[in-house]
Amino acid sequence: MSDLALGFAEALRLLGRGDAELWSIILRTLAVSGVATILAMAAGIPLGYALARSSFRGRTALLALVNSAMGLPPVVIGLIVWVLLTRSGPLGGLELIYTRRAMIVAQFLIATPLVIGFTAASVQALPPQLPDLLASLGASRWRRLWILSREAKLGLLAAVMAGFGAIVSEVGASMTVGGNLRGATRVLTTAIVTETSRGNIPVALALGLVLLLLAFLVNLVLTALQQRRAG
Fold it and tell me: Are 64 and 120 in contact (CB under 8 A)?
């Protein structure tokens, strides 16, 4: 309990004095995970909708593949991205390894299966005759998509929360492709690993508390939006 108390006190001290390094790590964490989540939404929501509404051979197997990818260890994805982006890899010429862009790519690959899976499940829960009913009422294609999205809004916001929660708290992929470079690619999770390895347990606990607070605040906003719209 003493370590927890010290960590809590250290977190308050760092936040209260406006520690420049801590705030840069927080903003970098939000930037990397935020951009990765937006990209995952842009790709995952249309793909999830298409999987839910389409009928083709192999669809069940594809859904099973997506559901399996939802549980893929982040460190494995980080290793795959590292192999692709390292100097001797097929995409080494892009010079993305050990940059924030490489971290965004890795986190995008982690979050996208979650967004696809949650979106497909929420759309499949809608009445199957709803799109045909809207079409018969004269709704345009984009109007139908908008109405269906509103009907599935609870699941779509859950998809966003699941995707963001998975990547803001992961460490393996970010460490592998980002390198945990101070002032460049160090985020909250990798900073926690660094301080723990140095034996700075109070600082590591403080960073952990800040990460929990950050995740809570983001999810609080999304949950409030979800519940308000539900009402």
Answer: no
Instruction: Please give the residue that has the higher pLDDT: either 165 or 225.
Output: 165
Q: For residue 168, which of 131, 218, 119 has the smallest C-alpha distance?
A: 218
Give the three-class secondary structure for 127.
coil
Please check whether residue 73 is in contact with residue 62, taking contact to mean a CB–CB distance below 8 angstroms.
no
CA distance 21 to 23: 6
* Domains, in order of start, for the chain: 25-187 (1.10.3720.10)
Instruction: Give the CA-trace dihedral at 163, 169, 174, 175, to 10 degrees.
Output: -160
Answer whether 0.90 is exceeded by the pTM.
no
Q: What percent of the chain has pLDDT over 70?
A: 95
Q: Which amino acid is at 92?
A: G
161: its two tokens? 């929360």
Phi, psi (rounded to 5 degrees) for 54: -90, 160
Q: Distance (Å, rounded) from C-alpha 73 to C-alpha 222?
A: 25
78 pLDDT exceeds 90?
yes
In the three-class reduction of DSSP (H, G, I as helix; E, B as strand; rest coil), residue 200 is classed as: coil
